[in-house]
Amino acid sequence: MHSTDIAHAPTPQPVPGDRRRWFALAIVMTAAFMDLVDVTIVNIAVPSIQRDEGATFSQIQWITAGYALAFAAGLVTGGRLGDIHGRKRVFLVGIGGFTVASALCGLAVNPEMLVASRILQGAMAALMVPQVLSIVHATFPAHERGKVFGLFGAIVGLGAVSGPLLGALLTEGNLFGLEWRPIFLINLPVGVAALALGSRFITESKAPRALKLDLPGVALVTLALLMLLYPLTRGRELGWPVWGYVSMAGALVVFAALVAYERAKGARDGSPLIELSLFRVKSFAAGIAVQTVFGVGLGIFFLVWTLYMQIGLGWSALRAGLTGVPFSVAVSVAAGVSVQQLVPRFGRKVLQAGALVMMAGVLIYLVEADRYGLGITSWQMALPLAVMGVGMGLVVAPLTDAVLSEVPREHAGSASGLINTVQQMGNALGLGLVSVVFFGVIDEKLAPAEVGPAFVDGFTHALGWVAAVLGAIFLLMFALPKRPAQHVEGDGVVQEAPAVGEKEPELVP
Q: For residue 100, what pLDDT is reported?
């Protein structure tokens, strides 16, 4: 979950006894909740959007992938803008823009407008999300932060569980005859309230030695990903034209140009978008690969799973949302146990076990889907989903600490920003690959009676890919440190990594 992975930084002691800080906490937690829910809420409504708007399957992919791509491309820059111009100011701009983009999504008159609005929404989330934990650190004294981050973990768990259910209820409820649109419009009153209260209760903070922006780096990353993703999502519809293969090959050239540019920028002013020296740390390089590949697997699974249940099996959005509850609950429970009890005792083995458990869940699901076909029930899905959820919980919670554990402290902010960025990029790539691993095995023109069996076949084929991805993750994890090390300062106090692109913040009156 991207908004939880961003690590945090030492701050000066805020003024004790200031009750306004609890209002500030509620506001930034609400923003984090909006972002988390927005990702899961859209997945469950995708079939309704496809049916009501007549969207092509490639447009459906871009409704989800466009958000992930814009979020990934802007994440590090969003953190640095907060450092330079003030976390409160950039947070308010982000939440205001997120609210406007949500309105545009809800009022979209065609699939093209919805895709464009989702891209804008992702870009605004990239301004909003990096500020959340930075504001918490600038607002709360050290002795209160344990309680605060416990609350934050609870909010994250609630977001994971409630997103699909809320999306299902809003879609099925068809409020005011608006079909799927309330999943976006619900953000409006929340966003307006957060904007009004945030301007009053959040304390401003900046980083006195903020890094400079690297907009050419952002442009090169975005261009390379577009050159890779656009042909992947449109290729099947267009008959895999030659220009698509040329574009995907050209993406590698642009990535090479990005590396050369970032190396030069690092030497020139010390503030590249990507700190290339980090990749000389074996555990970090392996961890980035794990995050990217994990994002690919999740991007494939969640979109295909939704299409399988609602279009293939013909289930309602509410039934699909309720079917996912065992998965969400298992993720939340396993994540808590993993961090607090298992990783301190068993280290890297917990993450590897998680990858294998999740792969086992995927394979059980594959066997059941193939065996029961269109007659499968929600109860029969509960076991594989719970197993998958346990595996995912064992991985996602401790992974960031494992990746950061051997990173030099002065680069911890850049490293944590990069972890979040590549996970989102992997997610966008996975959504793009749905054209190949799912729609690639489904005939374009199907009679109504053929849709269900074809989607079942496509789903089992995609699950095979997801299982292979998890196997690759298991192998990559051998390069992670056996036990994540904590960063210990001179005073013996354990500190965590700073937020995205962040130096030590100072409070601004």
A: 97
